[in-house]
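Session log. Operator J.P. requested a structure for one protein chain; no other inputs attached. Running the standard single-chain path with token output.
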Amino acid sequence: MRFGVCMGAGLALIACSSPEEMGEAVGLGESDIRLTVSSTDDPRAINFEDSAEREGGARNFAYAWPAEVSAIPGLAALLEQLRDEALTRQKDGWEQSLVDFSNENCVGCKARSFTKSWNLAGNTPRFLSLEGETYVYSGGAHGNSFFDALVWDREAGEALEPMDMFASSEAMSDALRPAYCDRLFAAQAERRGETRASREDLIAGCPGFDELVIVPVSRGGDAFGEIRVLAAPYVAGAYAEGPYVVDVPISQAFVAAVKEEYRSAFAAP
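Structure written below.
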């Protein structure tokens, strides 16, 4: 397995016990754990929730994935592991906040929120592509959002980071960056109501792919036809601008940057 969840430059993949077992192990007191599933789909979409209130503090946790994930046991097990790790981390942080601020009337200091949604970006005969969006609040003025992505290889039975599909990050960037930057600048101008003066200014203001998340996109058919580039708040603009999500059509140059064993998964017009 070659998948790691991106939180900036970090990677994490740790197997854990179930949320119910972890709740008992750390002694969190009263907790409202709910697992909501689609009543008509089989396999089913998963919407997991776990919340608690105690000592003037509140904690909310939500984690979801679509039915297409539940249809792949190995992928569903992976996301369960990632969910459990995130839930344990939140519970530990919340418990510590109740201790640290036990004598202070500070509701925000003792508040924690985590929401994670995996959404289907592409589904081809061999690959299933997911984009993840996460919101985390751990006290302070506001929370933060970030993106991550994974591609499940049905033939290999493993999860990949999308970047694993390319010969190198440099080759991918060289093939994708010009088209991405043009589309990003158009989105920024529309959102801000302004344009930059020169091409040099545009390129200088375009974030590098070490700050971005990419995910292959398909809209039917047997191959990915676009690359979605995800920029979290602060990456391509001020926090108030929110995230920037830009879809770039696959080009022949882009296909050439893909590792040979994955090239048939991408189709240029």
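Operator note: The first strand starts at residue 32 and ends at 37.
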